[in-house]
């Protein structure tokens, strides 16, 4: 006669629910990370937002302002406002376009030099962050962010229009 013994696994505890506000925690993280990049950019008189804009102009220019705004997922009026300090500094210029009414945004040689300086400092900020957090954690964070962005885009594609990194 065979005796059958049934073994049951212990109950799996329910997954812990996230504690606190996700938005607040993400904002705290992005502020801390941004502070590191801001400190590097400040050494050459740029804000991180200006570096991003200058990078887009260098990579995509000469480009119509409307196309640049679209590429950056930015309102045209916001783009115009953000271009003003870069134009005043001589890093970006508005040049004539294909016809008398159109304009093109392009980086000046000084703007291209400024971006090259900024890229070196940006890399230093990234290396510092990698050392502080550890490469494995940074890679996991990147994966989690990309997966989350993809899921959010699927659930609300009309609000997720974004631009790729430059």
Order of helices and strands: HHHHEEHH
Report the sheet with the most strands, covering strand number, pairing sense and barrel closure: 2 strands, antiparallel
State the name of the first-level CATH class.
Mainly Alpha
Instruction: Flag low-confidence runs.
Output: 160-165
3D shape: globular
CATH fold field value: Arc Repressor Mutant, subunit A
User: Could you tell me the number of beta strands?
Assistant: 2
Rg measurement, Å: 23 Å
- Terminal CA distance reads 73 Å
Summing up helix and strand content along with how strands pair, one would put the structural category as mainly alpha
Strand content: 5-15%
Question: How many separate domains?
Answer: 1
Shape-level CATH architecture: Orthogonal Bundle
Mean pLDDT: 88
Percentage of residues in helical conformation:
55-70%
Could you give the order of strands across the largest sheet? Answer: 1-2
Helical stretch tally: 6
Classified in CATH, the superfamily is Winged helix-like DNA-binding domain superfamily/Winged helix DNA-binding domain
């Amino acid at each position: 006669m065979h005796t059958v013994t049934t073994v049951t696994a212990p109950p799996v505890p329910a997954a812990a629910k996230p504690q606190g506000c996700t938005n607040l925690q993400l904002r705290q993280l992005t502020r801390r990370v941004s502070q590191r990049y801001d400190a590097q950019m400040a050494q050459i008189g740029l804000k991180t937002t200006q570096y991003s804009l200058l990078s887009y102009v260098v990579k995509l220019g000469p480009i119509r302002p409307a196309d640049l705004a679209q590429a950056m997922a930015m309102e045209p009026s916001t783009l115009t406002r953000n271009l003003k300090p870069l134009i005043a500094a001589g890093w970006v210029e508005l040049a004539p376009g294909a016809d008398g009414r159109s304009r093109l945004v392009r980086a000046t040689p000084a703007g291209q030099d400024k971006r090259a300086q900024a890229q070196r400092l940006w890399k230093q900020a990234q290396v510092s962050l990698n050392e502080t957090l550890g490469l494995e954690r940074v890679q996991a964070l990147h994966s989690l962010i990309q997966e989350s962005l993809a899921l959010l885009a699927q659930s609300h594609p009309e609000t997720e229009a974004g631009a790729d990194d430059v």
